[in-house]
């Protein structure tokens, strides 16, 4: 079915697009609040309907009745690998290569440390970690702390300058595949190939790409990757993260947090550490059973899309939604100082759209939230909107643009109630 170009869309056009959307049934997997247009799945995914019952089962039956026997009988001990194998299907990894554990930040510390050990063993003179200047701050903080500890340098650059820096043959290239601020999508395969040509290892953060678009770690020949469980994977606030190491690297070095769950035989309780084979050594402490169970429900919502075209179909819808949003804002909200920050070229765009406003970005987001349109703000000036095709509809995009138009034209964002900053923006 064809509809009008987004610049000339009516709400009826958006409704018609939704009526013919083969992915529309996937929305029924989620417990979306009535009257809310949720455009913040790039920060926290929506609650899957299956999650509450599954968590209740873990708490009342497996923990409440099974007690410690549930490590064996309910398969708790297998959760990191079992859920990891499901996530592997979404990021181009293979069974047994990816585990769920800890937080994204902790996992990044693990893989950066291992990657540095490999890089320095092969080429001790390499003393530089390269990353994007606008990479997510925790990634930069962890890289900076490791650089200080090992007398290395962290060099930051704009996205377009990264290939040139590889000519200096750094030890590591650390990037988030989709930039959290701009939504710019890096070409993982091309940058990894360029890095390898320079003898540089790559570490990829998939926080804004896993579950949002097709990722192919093996196809790109990436070296290490980490990712978040509570954004597009819908695992809930503080959900466990995941970690992957290419098999060619997995057993070369210990990761620095040598905990008992990463031991080759944790229940032998020996005083000396013997790392588990493969990715198992990247486990550390006792896994979060309740968190991993909730995460599995979230991952299953994505795997349900496989019969409807999988991530390729989700990606196509995501781009259609973001394209319509960009066109709608630029047509219906013109003259109010909004500047598009996200790449206009769809091939360079993740699953979010960011606009900058020099004066009122935070207040505008708060005014939208008061109207039931939930996005978020990133300092100093970005209004950020995520498009999760599992549950976002075309009519949601049309309505969100209309609410933004009204916020701007009425000037209500200037009201005092929208100026006070909350702890979380």
From TrEMBL:
Q: Which residues carry this modification: N6-(pyridoxal phosphate)lysine?
A: 231
Which Pfam families does the record match to this protein?
KYNU_C
A single Gene Ontology CC annotation of this entry is: cytoplasm
Sorted alphabetically, which HAMAP family does this protein's record hold?
Kynureninase (MF_01970)
| Species assigned in the record | Piscinibacter sakaiensis
Q: What Gene Ontology molecular function terms does this protein carry?
A: kynureninase activity; pyridoxal phosphate binding
Pathway assigned to this chain's UniProt record: Amino-acid degradation; L-kynurenine degradation; L-alanine and anthranilate from L-kynurenine: step 1/1; Cofactor biosynthesis; NAD(+) biosynthesis; quinolinate from L-kynurenine: step 2/3
Q: What is its EC number?
A: 3.7.1.3
Top-rank EC class of the record's enzyme: hydrolase
As for what it does, the entry says: Catalyzes the cleavage of L-kynurenine (L-Kyn) and L-3-hydroxykynurenine (L-3OHKyn) into anthranilic acid (AA) and 3-hydroxyanthranilic acid (3-OHAA), respectively.
Q: Which domain of life is it from?
A: Bacteria
Binding of pyridoxal 5'-phosphate occurs at 104-105, 136-139, 176, 205, 208, 230, 260, 286
Q: Specify the protein name.
A: Kynureninase
Name the catalysed reactions.
L-kynurenine + H2O = anthranilate + L-alanine + H(+); 3-hydroxy-L-kynurenine + H2O = 3-hydroxyanthranilate + L-alanine + H(+)
Q: How does it assemble?
A: Homodimer.
Cofactor annotation: pyridoxal 5'-phosphate
Keywords for this protein: Hydrolase, Pyridine nucleotide biosynthesis, Pyridoxal phosphate
Q: GO biological process: what's one of them?
A: quinolinate biosynthetic process
User: What's this protein's family per the entry?
Assistant: Belongs to the kynureninase family.
